[in-house]
Amino acid sequence: MAVTQQLARIRAEYLASCRQSADESPDGDHLWDPPSADVLDLDWAPFIVERVCELGGLDDVHRNALRQALDGDTAIDLAFLNTHPHAIGPFGPDPTALSAAQVACVAELLGQIEFPALLAALPTDETGAASLIGHGADKIAGGLKKYLLEHFNAMREFYHGASQRQLLVVLWWD
Q: Is the separation of the CB atoms in 97 and 73 below 8 Å?
């Protein structure tokens, strides 16, 4: 089973409910189960998207926003989500989250990134582009640039939707 990056947009009240469930359960069951419509699987795209932005010369402000969108923040305590036997991210780093205010800022900055222009800065030959990017980009089937554009757009739309609804975003690898 491949380990991929997952994002969930949730209400603060839902997170508080999960925390309370974990506290009250004898085995720490947090009952984490966000609606599938509010979960995004970014697959292995995060590393490759970041590399494309670096190669394309994306400015530091937007690269930092992208990094935050992909790494989250540790300010919100999510240790209860990573406790055995109910850990949501048992194969990667501890889950992280962004507050609704952070989500709004990230969503605005992601909306300003011209990702097709960054892709255009890569070699037109997919093999050459994959070689330059690294991070297993040569293993992407069905068109590297198409894969990257689809995943970047999905992430941007996901954050936009979370921002519009004033939701938090929780990130983990599963």
A: yes
pTM of the model: 0.95
Collapsing DSSP to helix, strand or coil, 23 comes out as helix
Q: Which amino acid is at 160?
A: H
Query: Cβ contacts of residue 1 below 8 Å, gap of 6+?
Result: none
Cα 96 to its chain centre, rounded Å, is: 10
Query: pLDDT tens track of the chain, all 174 residues?
Result: 468 999 999 999 999 999 999 999 999 999 999 999 999 999 999 999 999 999 999 999 999 999 999 999 999 999 999 999 999 988 888 999 999 999 999 999 999 999 999 999 999 999 999 999 998 999 998 999 999 999 999 999 999 999 999 999 999 998
**Taking the CB of residue 74, how many other CB atoms lie within 10 A of it?**
12
Specify the pairing of strand 5-10 against strand 39-43.
Answer: antiparallel
Strand positions, DSSP E, the chain: 5-10, 39-43, 96-98, 168-173
Q: Is the dihedral of CA 150, 61, 55, 91 positive or negative?
A: negative
